[in-house]
Amino acid sequence: MATRTRAEPIADDGSPLALFCTTPGGATLDELSRERPLFLVLLRHAGCTFAREAVADLREAESPIEAAGARLVVVHMGEEGPAMAKASGRYDLGGVSQVADPHRRLYRWLGLPRGRLSQLFGWKELARGAKACLLEGHGVGRLQGDGFQLGGLALVSGGRVVWRRPLSSASERPDYAAEANRAISELPTEQPA
Length: 193
Hints:
- The protein is α/β, with parallel strands linked by helices.
- It has 7 helices and 5 strands, in the order αβαβαβαααββα.
- A 5-stranded mixed beta sheet has the order 3-2-1-4-5.
- Helix 3 links the parallel strand 2 (71-76) and strand 3 (97-100).
- The termini are far apart.
């Protein structure tokens, strides 16, 4: 199965950031990124036990990400609104900005690949999935989105993607605060005039 490795422009200017609002009637990702950097976490579908695990991890990582100077934004493939909270009240992210991307425009634009069977259902994924599902209590839910889509991370600043990292498998569990700190540390510093 072929995977996409290059970003595909969506809007005429090559960036779909102006197409996505963080809340109905709210500011766009482009506008928000001009105020301060946005740390985007693009999740797998809401029914995925690893996406549920990620949201639980993000609740803990929100404060350190904010303290590092970025605003946390969660992108999901559900319909408009907080898909994870609809899947289960347990996964409410409170004040964290959420973006619905059911057509995967941001995923494609950022070049996030669809997974191969080994990345989705390999031995490591099955073992980690059983632990997250059964032992940690994340369970599984209804498929909402593309079940083959892998997640990823990106830092957007000044209307541009300045850092991105696709996740290597469905079961990859990054340290979100550490990744945000690393991405922010790589931002170019502005030279005084």
